[in-house]
């Protein structure tokens, strides 16, 4: 069994994670990808845009892990920062890579520890902003949207 440190040996990963977590950093997301055919992960990209920008880095034939900061709220007084962890296995990802990911995602979670929701998907529709916001709101518990109750 490879050690988690071997899989996540790129020091840029922990720095990017801290940047995404920090309110002082403009970095809002990161994507980790496998080096060629090895099990080692490297920081593939970071960005300052929204989740749609992050999704542009996820290929249909790739396995990747992503982490994104999102701000939710109805107004400036109810804004909350939440984080989503994404396990991406594109629809054309090789079967062996997908199989290894189930084990390796646990190791990635040792480096990317704090998030409100985990999304495992092979469909970018699951990563559309509205979908992810809905998942984050459910994870938050109380929902103060201005929707009328149906009772």
How would you describe this protein?
GO terms for molecular function: actin filament binding. InterPro entries: ADF-H, ADF-H/Gelsolin-like_dom_sf. This is ADF-H domain-containing protein. It holds the Pfam family Cofilin_ADF. The chain has a single domain (4-140), classed as Severin. By secondary structure, the chain is an alpha+beta fold. Strands 2-1-3-4-5 form a five-stranded mixed sheet, sandwiched between helices. The longest helix is centred in the last third of the chain and has 17 residues, at 95-111. The chain is globular, with a radius of gyration of 16 Å. Strand 1 (29-34) and strand 2 form a beta hairpin. The chain has helices at residues 4-7, 11-21, 51-55, 95-111, 129-140; strands at 29-34, 41-47, 63-72, 80-89, 117-121. Helices cover 32% and strands 25% of the residues.
List the helices and strands and how they pair.
Elements lengths: L3 H4 L3 H11 L7 E6 L6 E7 L3 H5 L7 E10 L7 E10 L5 H17 L5 E5 L7 H12 L11
Parallel strand pairs: 4-5
Antiparallel strand pairs: 1-2, 1-3, 3-4
């Amino acid at each position: 069994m490879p050690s988690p440190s071997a899989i996540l040996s790129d020091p840029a990963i922990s720095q990017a994670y801290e940047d995404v977590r920090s309110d002082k950093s403009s970095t809002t997301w990161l994507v980790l990808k496998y080096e060629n055919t090895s099990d080692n992960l490297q920081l593939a990209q970071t960005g300052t845009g929204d989740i749609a920008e992050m999704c542009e880095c996820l290929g249909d034939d790739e396995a990747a892990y992503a982490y994104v900061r999102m701000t939710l709220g109805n107004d400036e007084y109810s804004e909350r920062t939440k984080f989503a962890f994404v396990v991406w296995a594109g629809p054309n990802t090789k079967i062996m890579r997908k199989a290894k990911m189930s084990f390796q995602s646990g190791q990635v979670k040792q480096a990317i520890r704090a998030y409100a929701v985990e999304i495992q998907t092979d469909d970018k529709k699951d990563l559309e902003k509205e979908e992810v916001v809905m998942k984050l709101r459910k994870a938050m518990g109380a929902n103060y949207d201005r929707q009328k109750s149906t009772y």
